[in-house]
Design goal:
about 325 residues; alpha/beta; Quinone Oxidoreductase, Chain A, domain 1; Rossmann fold; 2 domains; seven-stranded mixed β-sheet; six-stranded parallel β-sheet; globular
């Protein structure tokens, strides 16, 4: 079957950074599903793994952590899905990725594809929806509290795009997004942000003009380390900071005076460690699909680069590494 992978960690402009391959078809066992991949989306984690993890033993590594497709076979212990079901999911960082015609995935981290979306639009959602949902409602424990505020730092990308919508649909928070370019600022407003400020300029002053001295919840999607001192300044006493990016060395002691708390999120934790609540991701994605189908939220697909092949995936990696992505990049069909 066709797939796209790499054998050495190389800059994306190298001819062998990503290659079209022919690999053996996998077979499902246990609770695995064998999915015919119809569309994938590309995330920053794809580029990070490509540069940090060289395959060993000569076998190529297949990337890809988002997919939508159709179940073609199921393991003997599978109970949530059957052949013919349309699904969407984010896969596992510890297994072979979704950039292949057929892909194995644990059904407990798979959701039913929204019926109102095509495969490309659905593929834009899983990883970012899980990361945003787990941060907002798991780590930060946001609910319907009124009079509270949240700032989403670097809100124009995939996670920020869905986080804005989930916060608006499922909470009464005032949502402040940050974006440094006019097109991403407009994008955040279209998705429902109450206010948009520019994180390339002093944020405290901008917030004060909006009537906010402090922010109750801060979601560090991108640039958390770069803006950490500003975060410490604007976070509320007893506020909460959730982080999904790689901020480097940050001084968590700086938040002690405010008794503010820090919460890490990795959407791969449940699948990597096979936690007892791993099936929560199945239920979470089903709820995302319901919100899509009822019109409460919408896909974050911004660009469809065409077929799933090495050339188009290189284009996607280049865009992500350049740091100027709005929403999600999707590829569709082999």
């Amino acid at each position: 079957m066709r797939a796209v992978g790499y054998k050495h960690s190389l800059p994306i402009d190298d001819a062998q950074s990503l290659m079209d391959l022919e690999i053996e078809e996998p077979a499902p066992q246990g609770r695995d599903l064998l999915v015919e991949v119809k569309a994938v989306s590309v995330n920053p984690v794809d580029t990070k793994v490509r540069m940090r993890m060289s395959p060993k033993g000569g076998a190529p590594k297949i990337l890809g952590y988002d997919a939508s497709g159709v179940v073609v076979a199921a393991g003997a212990d599978a109970k949530l899905f059957k052949p013919g079901d349309s699904v969407f999911y984010a896969g596992s960082i510890s297994r072979s990725g979704t950039n292949s015609q057929l892909h194995l995935v644990d059904e407990r981290i798979v959701g039913k594809k929204p019926t109102t979306l095509g495969f490309a639009a659905a593929a834009a959602l899983p990883l970012t929806s899980i990361a945003a949902w787990e941060t907002l409602f798991g780590r930060l424990e946001i609910n319907r509290q009124k009079g509270k505020s949240m700032l989403i730092l670097g809100a124009g990308g995939g996670v920020g795009s869905i986080a804005i919508q989930l916060a608006r649909a499922l909470s009464d928070l005032t949502v402040v997004a940050t974006a440094s370019r006019p097109e991403t600022a407009d994008w955040c407003r279209e998705l429902g942000a109450h206010h948009v400020i520019d994180h390339s300029k002093p944020m405290a002053a901008q917030l004060e003009t909006l009537g906010y001295r402090f922010i109750d919840y801060i979601f560090g999607v991108n640039g958390t380390g770069q803006h950490y001192d500003a975060i410490v300044e604007i976070i509320s006493p007893q506020g909460k900071l959730g982080i999904i990016d790689d901020p480097g060395a940050i001084g968590i002691d700086k938040m002690k005076g405010k008794s503010a708390s820090l919460h890490w999120e990795s959407m791969f934790t449940r699948s990597t460690f096979q936690t007892s609540d791993i099936e929560e991701q199945h239920r979470l994605l089903n709820e995302v699909a319901r919100l899509i189908d009822t019109g409460s939220i919408k896909t974050t697909l911004a660009d469809n680069l065409g077929a799933i092949n090495a050339n188009n995936l290189k284009r996607a990696h280049t865009l992500i590494e350049g740091g100027h992505v709005r929403g999600k990049i999707v590829l569709e069909g082999f």
